[in-house]
């Protein structure tokens, strides 16, 4: 993907802000090239995407706008378009704060943040039930597609592929029919923002899609939660905010989607950094043992 080079003149034009002071390129993401644009009175995040293009940015913007209408705190979408020199772009507000990744370095993730995060996830899921539920058959199709792609390119050992298929199929059938909702799919420490005053905002809706609610907890469970008490605070607050009893199949549902994530990571790193694949395969094996 060609990386657009942004100067202050271009940033002023795209942000419609004559008082842009500086532009700073952010680390390259999977989908987008991002810039932090600082103005005199406000700051912006400017995303370019020349690979998936404007349709992907439109989908991202729609997911953010939809989440905001349900009360989720997300950056405001300001402009979506195509620049003749720089390509498709999405302009959104830059929210002040620090991510969970940054806060964790100084042990600043306090217990009160877990209910605040749970509230945002519940607001994202509430009021967005999709008519067609997830079913055992749809889960098996998803699992089979991943395993087919992995097996075709011999990315995981055949014995591991077979164990994953058996385990996943049993779980898929056990989970029955379950409603699907609008989900984020990448609630990871980098994408959870602690705002001044301890409020939480969700960032980066590039992976947002319709899925089972539990799928939004896989990365939190794996990378965020330092203790069982924090996990209880998070989940209790989530179900309370949703106005529902806790899902009795939650842990089994989480196991299925944890397996899916492990398989997906092998495919992800194949094209991004193949040296990561052995570690992904080892993590998959640990999950299945």
UniProtKB/TrEMBL annotation:
Database matches in SUPFAM superfamilies: Protein kinase-like (PK-like)
Pfam families: APH
InterPro entries according to UniProt: AGP_Transferase, Aminoglycoside_PTrfase, Kinase-like_dom_sf
Aminoglycoside phosphotransferase domain residues: 23-238
GO molecular function: kinase activity
Keyword tags: Kinase, Transferase
First and last residue of the signal peptide: none
PANTHER family for the chain: AMINOGLYCOSIDE PHOSPHOTRANSFERASE-RELATED-RELATED
Protein name: Predicted kinase, aminoglycoside phosphotransferase (APT) family
Species whose genome carries this gene: Micromonospora eburnea
């Amino acid at each position: 993907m060609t990386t657009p080079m942004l100067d202050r003149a271009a940033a002023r034009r795209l942000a419609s802000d004559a008082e842009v002071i500086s532009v700073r390129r952010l680390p390259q993401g999977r989908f987008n090239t991002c810039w932090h644009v600082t103005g005199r009175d406000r700051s912006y995040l400017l995303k370019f995407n020349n690979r998936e293009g404007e349709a992907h940015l439109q989908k991202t913007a729609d997911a953010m706008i939809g989440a905001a209408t349900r009360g989720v705190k997300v950056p405001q979408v300001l402009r979506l378009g195509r620049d003749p020199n720089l390509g498709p772009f999405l302009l959104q507000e830059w929210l002040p704060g620090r991510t969970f990744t940054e806060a964790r370095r100084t042990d600043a993730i306090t217990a009160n943040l877990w209910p605040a995060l749970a509230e945002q996830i519940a607001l994202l899921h509430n009021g967005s039930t999709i008519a067609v539920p997830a079913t055992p058959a749809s889960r098996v199709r998803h699992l089979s597609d991943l395993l087919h792609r992995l097996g075709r390119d011999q990315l995981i050992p055949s014995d591991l592929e077979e164990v994953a298929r058996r385990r996943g199929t049993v779980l898929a059938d056990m989970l029955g029919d379950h409603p699907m909702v609008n989900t984020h799919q990448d609630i990871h420490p980098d994408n959870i923002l602690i705002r001044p005053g301890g409020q939480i905002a969700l960032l980066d809706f590039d992976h947002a899609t319709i899925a089972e609610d539990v799928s939004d907890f896989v990365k939190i469970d794996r990378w965020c939660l330092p203790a069982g008490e924090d996990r209880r605070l998070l989940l209790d607050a989530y179900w309370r905010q949703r106005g529902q009893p806790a899902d009795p199949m939650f842990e089994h549902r989480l196991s299925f989607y944890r397996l899916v994530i492990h398989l997906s990571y092998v495919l992800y790193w194949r094209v991004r950094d193949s040296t990561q694949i052995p570690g992904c395969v080892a993590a998959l094996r640990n999950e299945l043992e």
